[in-house]
Structure prediction request, 160 residues.
Amino acid sequence: MSTVMELIGLSPMGFNSIPAMDPRKDEVAFRCGEVVMNILKRGIRPSDILTQAAFENAIAGVATTGGSTNAVLHLLAISREMGLPLDIDDFQRVSERTPLLADLKPAGKFVAAGRGRSGRIPVIAKRLLDGKFADGSAMTVTGKPSPKRRTPRKKPPDRR
Prediction:
């Protein structure tokens, strides 16, 4: 669900996969407070963030990580509270077009903690955006769209 919250836009990208006892967690907590104050000042509401595109981004995050079926239940409940149409067929449609990039437990081979050593959720999000499996225009809790796909830097000419 930490992946879901970042990809749906309710949590700042990169915050959720930092382990609880990691010294960086204090900085993340402080920055979360800044994010909350910013969205209050700007009048950003959950309905501004929780759009159909945001839900599809979250579903893609679940699919690409081999995520838990609990995510289906949670996302259906959240969408119902938001008054957005979402059903099991949407999960099937998005899952069919989304590759498995991180074979995580409970059904997969790897634990989520290992994800922290490999770049965390932002790397997963970038791969989804690069492959056009996620919508980079969806607003997030930061008040900005999802991280855009970056154009690779050109290599400097070989000066041998």
